Amino acid sequence: MTTIYNFSAGPAVLPKEVLQQAAAEMLDWQGSGMSVMEMSHRGPEFISIYRAAESDLRELLAVPDNYRILFMQGGGLSQNAVIPMNLVGRKGPDATIDFVHTGSWSGKSIKEAARYAKVNVAASAEASGYTAVPPQSEWRLSPDAAYLHLCTNETIDGVEIDFAPDVPAGVPIVADMSSHILSRQVDVSRYGLIFGGAQKNIGPAGVTVVIVRDDLIGHALPVCPSAFDFKNVAGNESMYNTPPTYGIYIAGLVFQWLKKNGGVAAMEQRNIEKARLLYAALDADDFYQNRVAPQYRSRMNVPFYLRDESQYEAFLAGAKARGLLQLKGHKSVGGLRASIYNAMPIEGVQALVDYLNEFAGR
């Protein structure tokens, strides 16, 4: 039977061990007689699952004590509205939000945030076709912004920001880390808020993780729905409304899997190896093309193009026959894309590299 490797950008591959454990516990979680899907979110069984997940994530990312971890619904896209509704109130009705525009997802964030405050695009990579991060020397930051928003890994465009920039005193950095959270070490204390949809490196779609500093909680605009007010969510252990219980359970299993496999530091080294292997194959000649400047290439999302555009259907058909799935690029940019998240084993990347070489040679 052909081994299947799923390169989807999200919902994405999950660790096999996690799926096996979830399957074994589907009908009866640890002798409770219930599936996690059936549990009350206020019962002791699920409370223990939730608290273990929160504790493990705090340990994995070394989250300081003055930050809250929230498990919310609505996806990363909804946070483009939830975050300004919670943060701009600190600065009053004339608040400005700074953005660095590095691709599709930061563009969506800019558009949504403009509904709640003035937006300053401090820097844009549009001129490069979103293939690089504008030099920090060119950023035009507001001295008293409500916050600076960055998408630190553009899932569609394949651009990754691997640094926390310097900002004016008192300006928090908000980072959309949806597609590379837990893939590399990060100093959480450099950020005011980190968020990410779970469906790439954490678990199934339906859960959004928000890590927010205490002083940024409690400033929601009157228009903010009560279920999205960080103060309500934090004050009720993410259970102000019914949380996505099964998604949190799977996320907790992923956190346990990460800890058993050496944590984020070990995962980062594996991701460096996988990315080097794949980019080396793409750069071997001009048959394939990755357009992102090498210093900003994502370790997680690798878009690439064929020199001969008539060969895309043949490439995808051949890949599918070999068990290499979900390699079609995003509809907005075309081409091809391989997402190689934490759960993608190096064997999967090697299988893709072998096929890349075979197809180019043929």
From TrEMBL:
The keyword Transferase appears for this protein: yes
MF (Gene Ontology): O-phospho-L-serine:2-oxoglutarate aminotransferase activity; pyridoxal phosphate binding
GO biological process: L-serine biosynthetic process; pyridoxine biosynthetic process
Residues annotated for pyridoxal 5'-phosphate binding in this entry: 105, 155, 176, 199, 241-242
Annotated InterPro entries: Aminotrans_V_dom, Aminotrans_V_PyrdxlP_BS, Pser_aminoTfrase, PyrdxlP-dep_Trfase, PyrdxlP-dep_Trfase_major, PyrdxlP-dep_Trfase_small
Record EC number: 2.6.1.52
Subcellular locations according to the entry: Cytoplasm
Cofactor stoichiometry and binding remark: Binds 1 pyridoxal phosphate per subunit.
KW Disulfide bond (keyword) present: no
Pathway(s) this gene product operates in, as recorded in its UniProt entry: Cofactor biosynthesis; pyridoxine 5'-phosphate biosynthesis; pyridoxine 5'-phosphate from D-erythrose 4-phosphate: step 3/5; Amino-acid biosynthesis; L-serine biosynthesis; L-serine from 3-phospho-D-glycerate: step 2/3
Entry keywords, A to Z: Amino-acid biosynthesis, Aminotransferase, Cytoplasm, Pyridoxal phosphate, Pyridoxine biosynthesis, Serine biosynthesis, Transferase
Residues holding L-glutamate: 42
Aminotransferase class V domain sequence ranges: 4-352
One of the record's GO cellular component terms: cytoplasm
Catalytic activity, reaction form: O-phospho-L-serine + 2-oxoglutarate = 3-phosphooxypyruvate + L-glutamate; 4-(phosphooxy)-L-threonine + 2-oxoglutarate = (R)-3-hydroxy-2-oxo-4-phosphooxybutanoate + L-glutamate
Cofactor: pyridoxal 5'-phosphate
Main location, first listed in the record: cytoplasm
N6-(pyridoxal phosphate)lysine PTM positions: 200
Function: Catalyzes the reversible conversion of 3-phosphohydroxypyruvate to phosphoserine and of 3-hydroxy-2-oxo-4-phosphonooxybutanoate to phosphohydroxythreonine.
HAMAP family, per the entry: SerC_aminotrans_5
Subunit structure: Homodimer.
Family of this protein: Belongs to the class-V pyridoxal-phosphate-dependent aminotransferase family. SerC subfamily.
Protein name from the UniProt record: Phosphoserine aminotransferase
Taxonomic lineage of the native organism: Bacteria, Pseudomonadati, Pseudomonadota, Betaproteobacteria, Burkholderiales
UniProt gene name: serC
